Amino acid sequence: MFLLFLYKTVIGAACTINDLFDRDIDRKVERTRLRPLASGLLTPFQGIQFLGLQLLLLLGILLQLNNYSRVLGALSLLLNFSYPLMTRFTHWLQNRQT
Q1: How many separate domains does the chain show?
Q2: Within 13 A of 89's CA, how many CA atoms are on the CB side?
Q3: Any idea which UniProt keywords this protein has (predicted)?
């Protein structure tokens, strides 16, 4: 079970979602301007294709779990998609240095 969750973390679909949403912002930030989508190395369509592959792999993980865990795993996708959007409306989720 632990290995399945470790595998989910390594797949990193949330990072891809964040990079897709923030690609225009990332171009303007020194620390993130060289990310593949921000730099133009990958197109947004290629990013979406990669995200689709990641989600397909995650579905494979979900199918290995019991029904309760499947529901929780599917609901966690809502957090993965909403996190990049929430950073536009609140500072709660951002790691800021003061």
Answers
A1: 1
A2: 5
A3: Membrane, Transferase, Transmembrane, Transmembrane helix
